Amino acid sequence: MNLNKVILIGRLAADPESRTTTGGQEVVSLRVVTNRVWNSADGQKQEQAEFHSVTLWGRLAQIANQYLKKGGLVMIEGRLQTRSWTGTDNQKKYRTEIVGENLQLGPRSASSGQESTPRSYNNGGGSGYSKPAPSQKFTSQSKPKEDMEEQIPVINEDEPIIASNEIEETTVDLKDIPF
Description:
Blueprint: E1 6-12, E2 17-20, E3 26-39, E4 45-57, H1 58-67, E5 73-86, E6 92-105, E7 119-122, H2 145-150, H3 164-167
Parallel strand pairs: 4-6
Antiparallel strand pairs: 1-3, 1-5, 2-3, 3-4, 5-6, 6-7
């Protein structure tokens, strides 16, 4: 059995970089920073930042481009992939990156006055939304948890993007969306 799975929880080092392939598919590149903290042998606190390259495709790319900003908390679930190409100097170059398959937006800051429930999106089949893990304590001041879960919009990869004037006609109130 083989397994290639990566889970990152970190902050964006820069705003997402969006582009479109010649085939018309949207792709976003992210730089996610994670911190590792440990105590050295002499008891001194040590900290090291690690920068990760992440690539998102299709609907996940659209969501990331629309809602993620520099400094924002994000959880990426995906796989490692190494690409190779020949550079302009005729040298073979390699790049290992994470190809995102699931994305969970971090909670908004408490100062925004909005709910702080994270949202999860996936790039494959399934509902497009998964509830936060039980260990995560994201609560709302204004609504019980059951009501919040019923109002969470489900976004699937194959679902068309709705223009902003059409969103107001749906049952979801825009001020209830925390992102």
